[in-house]
Amino acid sequence: MSQREKAAQFAALHVKGSPVVLYNAWDAGSAKAVAEAGAKAVATSSWAVAEAQGYRDGEHIPLELVERVVARIAGAIDVPVTADFEGGYSEDSDAVAENVSRLIDLGVVGINFEDRVVKGTGLYPGYRQVCRIEAIRGAAEKKGVGLFINARTDLFLGQTGDPARSIDEALKRARAYADAGASGFFVPGLRDEALIGRICDGVSLPVNVLVMDGVPPKERLAALGVARISYGHLPYVAAMSAVKEAALRALS
């Protein structure tokens, strides 16, 4: 299957009310295990990729190493691969576009791209993030690949206070990101069932929810209109916990 075909296949998996489940991987071995379990696509977790290489999340792992890991994953499995690319490893739109172009050359068909200022504080103003998404879409079009840009907003992750206060801003950003060329809208940290439903009802893009404590089960998320469910760093945490327990038994 060609990269263009994989990109189309991946986009088609995002169906409102019938969400694609992404059990995130961090290297070629974990990606193969997930694919062999029957996954229709494989996504990386930036947190897990960094931790597996001894780095902290937040673009502390060198971009060149990220590219090598992603290349190994894309070359090891036949299903579509989408990469968690944090903030694109630059604040400059042109540099972000260049970085994403290299990922496309490695075989990925999708990215997560967040509006948090990774090396700073807070979120990019909406207009700045729109410019960054437009640059990525332009780069993908030059490559002739229908890259799935999963536009992530960090309005809810780690938020204190009432998340309902951020819903209007989230909807505003979703509309702007869609107009800029985004393919999906990711709302990690949003747990409340009613608020997830408001996002799904008010957004034209497929909505992605992150599995975490307090998030409704898959069946309920589907009923709310969610199109994508991600496990983030949880698979890595579970795997490392199992390794540690096995090592303790072996060494005792």
Structure description:
With about 250 residues, the chain is an alpha/beta fold. The chain has one domain: TIM Barrel. Helices cover about 50% and strands about 10% of the residues. It is built from 10 helices and 8 strands. It has an 8-stranded parallel beta sheet. The termini are far apart. It comes from Frigoriglobus tundricola.
Q: Average pLDDT value?
A: 97
Number of domains: 1
CATH level-two architecture: Alpha-Beta Barrel
- Can you list the strand order of the major beta sheet? 1-8-7-6-5-4-3-2
Strand % is: 5-15%
What's the shape? globular
Helix content estimate: 40-55%
Distance between the termini: 48 Å
Element string (H = helix, E = strand): HEHEHHEHEHEHEHEHEH
The number of E-state strands comes to: 8
Low-confidence parts, pLDDT < 50 over ≥5 residues? Answer: none
Q: Could you name the CATH homologous superfamily?
A: Phosphoenolpyruvate-binding domains
Rg over CA atoms: 17 Å
CATH topology: TIM Barrel
SSE class:
alpha/beta
| Main beta sheet | 8 strands, parallel
Number of continuous helical runs: 10
Q: What is the CATH top level name? A: Alpha Beta
Keywords: Transferase
Organism: Frigoriglobus tundricola
EC number: 2.7.8.23
Enzyme class: transferase
